[in-house]
What we know:
The protein has 226 residues and is an alpha/beta fold. 42% of the residues lie in helices and 17% in strands. A 7-stranded parallel sheet has the order 3-2-4-1-5-6-7, sandwiched between helices.
Amino acid sequence: MSEPRMIEVRRNVLKQNDVIARALREQFRAAGVFVVSLVSSPGSGKTTFLEKTLTQLQPRYRVAALVGDLATENDALRLARSKAPVKQITTGTLCHLEAAMVQNALRDWDLNRLDFLFIENVGNLVCPSSYDLGENLRLVLMSVTEGEDKPLKYPTIFNSADVAVITKNELAAVVEFDWETARRSIESVRPGMRIFRLSAKTGEAMQSYLDFLVEQLKEHRAVAHT
């Protein structure tokens, strides 16, 4: 296949994805559900972070999650410990989720019974940046063990995300993580980006992040109502 043909096919795929994503976004708006997607490289602690998020929100809010992975249902089984509805999306050879996969996974779910829907993407900082999933908020996670220059190496995903979350802060001193350097790296790629520095393991700063999500839900519903 020639290069121009490959580019045209990719454009068509992305265009089709955007059409489905817009339909999903309207569906989410009508149901009043706030949708958060999570992207990161493997090993950032994304699943642990999401499990704690689901567990801590659940007493007051109706939450559910879709989990994307190349193979196995290990992440879905871990998230199910939160007692929230969880569904696995197995992508096979694809290194990202697409809007059609999300649409198919939600066919037998009643979105009107949810306040929050979380979508955990496949562990990858390249492919997911191009695919809109109809989400209201995209979080990009990086752990302190990955180094302060992650945003400089993967600027596209940080530009396509709304919020940066620095995870595993309990290990920051051990790995000599330089917070100011990391902050400058994020700022140089995405000036003014909201950043949360936390630990899902110890609970450090988790409440501040959860409060932020609740405020986003309230604002989303207020706008949808008007």
